[in-house]
Amino acid sequence: MRSLWLVVLLGAALCGCRRSDEPAGAAPSKDDAEKSGAKISKRTEFEPQEDPVIRVREKYNAAEQITDPEERTKALEAVAWDALELDPDLSLEAVNQLAAGSDGSRRLIGHMAMRLADEDAEQALQWVRALEDPAERSDAIGRVTVVMANEDPRRAADLAVNEMAEGRAKDKAVVQIVQRWVQIEPAEAAAWIILYPDTNVRTDGVRSMLDIWLSKDSASAGSWVGNLAPGPVRDHTLETAEELLHGRLADRAPAFVGALNDPELQTQFQSLRNAK
């Protein structure tokens, strides 16, 4: 179910979207208008403007009358996006008219989930868990965990692993969580991702983690790699680090190699470099 409390929370999340230095309804000054070539007249200054909320609701009413299924879906999706900030209640109403699990519904629900998570991650998680369509629910949980990773990356990672269905959405969420985690707790993020199942997700996650860590503190990254147990994981991690340090992060290589603190590992790193 798509709970109605979403409307209240979404409205609160959106209320601060307008820049404080741009008051609602402020018209451009005469100088600004003249610079842009606009014409000012007494008639247009006082001419009433159509309420955008009324306009988007009229679009919704028109969309409901469309008989062609494909065209009706497109019109409802457009209304849902247009109403997201103007009228969250109407936006949710339009989403409810879409087929659950459809691409359009999943994109809109995912966007709503992220906006809600910015305001209150726990309530957003409660809402997305109640979604009936499995694909829609999994994708929305992923959006919430990525936002949550900015404050509590370990919990976000556990939620992604345990509550998301296998697939592209989960893979993407895991890598994005690691990217945020490494900026807060690099050693913890690194220790978590190297234990992830041996898949492309781990490969991508390790590379993303090292890219960020090496750019911020290559010495501590080198110390961490130097303390890994010998084996395929350490070999792959060292190889990935060398690839990154061979390119745009080349100036970070001396600090990384010095921090490896293991002559054998330093020799292995140099061998990888010489093989280029």
Any descriptors?
276 residues; mainly alpha; 71% helix
Task: Write structural notes for this entry.
71% of the residues lie in helices and 0% in strands. It has 276 residues and is mainly alpha-helical. The chain is elongated and about 75 Å long. The chain starts with a helix and ends with a helix.
Quick description:
By secondary structure, this protein is mainly α. The protein has 16 helices and no strands.
**Structural shape:** elongated
Order of helices and strands: HHHHHHHHHHHHHHHH
Mean pLDDT: 85
**Largest sheet data:** none
**Given the helix and strand composition, which structural class is it?**
mainly alpha
Strand proportion:
under 5%
The low-confidence runs, each spanning 5 or more residues with pLDDT under 50, are: 14-28, 32-43
Percent helix, as a range, is: over 70%
Q: Termini separation (Å)?
A: 56 Å
| Overall strand count | 0
Tally of helical segments? 16
C-alpha Rg, in Å? 25 Å
Write the layout of secondary structure elements.
Blueprint: H1 5-14, H2 30-35, H3 42-45, H4 52-64, H5 69-86, H6 88-96, H7 103-119, H8 121-129, H9 134-148, H10 153-163, H11 168-181, H12 186-193, H13 200-226, H14 232-246, H15 253-260, H16 263-274
